[in-house]
Amino acid sequence: MLSLNDFFVIGPSPAKLVSGQYTPSLVVLSLIIAVGASYMALVLAAAARRSTSRLMERLHLVSGSASLGFGIWSMHFIGMLAFEMPIPVDYDPTITLFSVAPSLLASWVALSLLAHNDITPTRLALGGITVGAGIGAMHYLGMAAMQMGPTLRYDPALFAVSILVAVLLGTVALWISFGLRRRQLLTGYKRRLLAGTVMGLAIAAMHYTAMEAARFIGEPSPDFLPGSNRHLLLALSIAFVTVSLSLMAAGVNAVARYRALMQRSQQTAGELKTVVDAAVDGIIKISETGTILSFNDSAERIFGYEAEEVLGKNVKMLMPEPHQSAHDGYLDNYLRTGEQKIIGTGREVWALHKDGHEFPIRLAIGEARLNGSSTFVGFITDISLRHQMETDLLRAKEEAEQAAEAKSAFLANMSHEIRTPMNSIIGFTDLVLGSPLTDTQTKHLSVVKTSARSLLALLNDILDTAKLDGGHTELECRDFSLRAVCEQIVASQSLQAGRKNLYLTLDYRAEDHFRGDPLRVQQILLNLVTNAVKFTHEGGVKLQVQQGKSGKLLILVEDTGIGIPADRIDHIFEPFTQADSSMTRRFGGTGLGTTIARQLTELMGGEIRVSSKPGQGSTFRVSLPLPPGTAVDSNPKTEQEVTLPRLSFLVADDVKQNLELLSILLKERGHKVETAQNGEQALNIFAAQPFDVVLMDVQMPEMNGHEATRRIRQLETERQQPPTPVIALTASVLEQDRREASAAGMDGFAIKPIDLAELTTEISRVLGLLHLNKAQKMRHKARSSAEAVNTSLIKQLWPDSQAHLKAARQFLQASQNQPETLRHQTDVAPIAHRLRGVAGNLGFAPLAATLAEIEVTLKKQLTVSEGLWHQLDEQFQAAKDWHDRQHNETAPLHETPQSFKPLDLSALDDLLERLQHGEVPEDIFNRIRPSLPTDCAEAAAEALDNFDPQRAAQLLKAHRDTIKEASC
After folding, report:
1. Are 427 and 445 in contact (CB under 8 A)?
2. Most distant CA pair in the chain, distance
3. Which of 151, 489, 646, 727 has fewest C-beta within 10 Å?
4. What are 17's strand-pairing partners?
């Protein structure tokens, strides 16, 4: 029976120990085998960790374990063969082969641990112990296979150290492999090479520590020949077999891995093909020469081609001209310069169908580069349906705009055609009522007048709602007294309420002054209060004003009238709609009052609601976002005629009744009147004698009022006469009509039927109060001067008042300086900055301040409010009024045209010739300047001052051509 003494030896006599020495080359070979086998094992363990199937994972682990196991075994025997002793040594084949089993088991355990993504400390310790024990068992089994003369025993301490070294170094090798992988200090083969080197050295360290523990007890063989134990060939054979097995294992794994990757690639390719074929968009792949490489099913559907018809052909066959001819050039330019026009982005282009028709597509192109060659993939979406919808929408928009224009034209014509006879009806009715009549005649004519006024109110309502629907209504923004507006409405409707024995009260609980459009607010309240009085038989109406929530103003109109059924409340604000069909017969009206109130309220950014119970009354609630305003004169304007001095009028109208009516009305007030039935007659009469005011109808035969006004302005310029005020006298009341009249050079606008209070007010306005009484004139002048200019600054900067007036006239009359022109510029801020400086230098301080406010607002990227634009209009007009007043005060009222020498055309031709050659002959220009119109002379002088002879030549040539045409 074996005992420890048969395995260990303690303190043997050194004389009885047989010692040997190592062959360095075989030692090095053993280390290479250990490190190489460890590295290969780690590579296969990583492959097992990445495997997607259980079979591939087992294959990688088995082959890796075999490679590492046989590598450890090979390292062991090469290391033993490297140890040469002076005795013959043989090895038992059975034990030698059996010794590989622990090595394989240890390798399996090690690689199974390394195949995990992570490892616990317990598993790491157990793995290290198993690996160390397996390697130790393999080593000592291999040592037991030695057949020799001396007896093999082991030093107990070194034996224990060898096992401990195997366990510790195995654990360290596993920990290093996991630690490097987790911390990602190294990646790929570098990490595995480092870990394999540590593991190989650990295996070698255990082996050579165990060899140091071996004690060979006996005597050296006397007939031993040195070098007889050198088994170099055997060692190399073992190394070759081991390396071959490792490479074979690696090859088998590589083939298996390649097969798996191939299957995966085929699966991915199949999935990608399925995606491409199922894509709704067309997908076309082309080479860098433009050759079509693939053409999916959707592309076949979009272009009408089968894939076989286009594969291998140039993609330009799918493009219309001019892109078809230019495509190859586009592609070559991109490949040469890298300049991208569509690659990486999307754009809408036209494509060519197989049947020859062109259609719109959305095209996006991507590029893939491989080995220096490019492949392009195009994604095509057929947008024909969307393009057709956009085209239809655009056509519908154009048709809607044309319909809106036709509607506006119809309203304008209807207004003109209805108001023209209404002018005669109301005007002559007033004339007859002013003459001696019987009571019956007076009664009948009063009915006619009332009916005509009702018809006119109906027409105004229709036009108001049409303008609101078309967005043609512009709101004014100024301070006003809401209390005064409400009191005026209550006062005006009290008479009607008193006739029906109704109360009409005002409950005012808000601030007095607000900022907004007082006329539109008045129109809203008047419509609501009028309706409330109309539909109330008992009780009365209450107008209540209070400050609402969120800073909004709340206005309530409550009545105790007939009420509105619940099923009709939602329709009460629709045009031409009343509570039921009998309302119109019982109460009259058009049903437009509430519609206009709603439209005006929403235009101001407010809201209107109604609540009602049949038989108990209704309550209309209006919420308006009116900001607080400053105190203003709350006295309402009286609708009375303005007393005018005796004036000379030229009245042009194609309707004889209108001419007769105006002639009678004006002559009764002491004015001189000349009449014309068309624009041509008016122009001839105006050319023959001067007039104080021209009342010009717009729509007349032969020459309309706009053209006649333009010709009058041209005539005044040629004669160097001050402009005569021209007032448009028209039945057209749209905002566009006012703009057209202003563009034609008209100064005022009066609406038919004639209202003498409005007409005389407009006449006094366009005359600049020149013919009002002195007190009115001085009061208006003082107020306007204080508001429009800084007189002390003007005196300081402009000692010459005439020079200041000339500069101010040029500034105020320049078309590019007008507020309307400024408002429609694309970049307003720098223009406002320029005008601000000029206005300030001219002394128009309020105008300069407003321009500065506009400039600051735009620089803050904010929107200029309508109120600020309106303020600019008012201050610009105030500056104009001040200038006109200063100019007219220095000249008599009817200053006759100055006599001037006839223009010397030969001198003018000489001047033009020199100017066109770049000369500036001031002596010739100064000689003919008195014969030129003022505007032309000043513009030419300014051009010469700026050394711009070409501009001066253009102005003078235009004047010469005008003279020649007039003389023909």
Report:
1. no
2. 177
3. 646
4. 217
